[in-house]
Write a structure and sequence with these properties.
Elements (H helix, E strand, L loop, with lengths): L8 E4 L8 E8 L4 E4 L4 E6 L8 E6 L2 E2 L3 E4 L6 E2 L1 E5 L5 E5 L9
Antiparallel strand pairs: 1-2, 1-7, 2-3, 3-6, 4-5, 7-8, 9-10
Length: 104
């Protein structure tokens, strides 16, 4: 079970976007990187295709997972993630800062 998953709200801990928050669009676990919506924007030259116009577009670049932290469900501040097993036998992630369950 991964600590950060697609759809999680995360806080950027380092880099040009330090302190900003966003939602994880996709994870690349083999590379140890993640795409976060609206963060680490870069400009790329786009070749014209039948469906898309040519020009310079802005898109998200991957961020190393070590520079991300889950946003605490209570106050939105960065928190570490722990795992625990509930009474019904389900394994869940929880925020170590507040103790709240992150999913499920």
């Amino acid at each position: 079970m991964q600590k950060i998953r697609k759809g999680d709200k995360v806080v950027i801990l380092a880099g040009k976007d330090k302190g900003r928050t966003g939602e994880v669009i996709s994870m690349k676990p083999k590379e140890g990187r993640a795409l976060v919506r609206g963060v680490n924007m870069v400009k790329r030259h786009q070749k014209q295709t039948p469906s898309q116009e040519a020009g310079i577009i802005a898109k998200e670049a991957p961020i190393d997972v070590s520079n991300l932290a889950i946003a605490d469900p209570k106050d939105g501040k960065p928190t570490r993630v722990g795992f625990k097993i509930l009474e019904d036998g389900k394994k869940v992630r929880f925020a170590k800062r507040s103790g709240d369950v992150i999913d499920g």
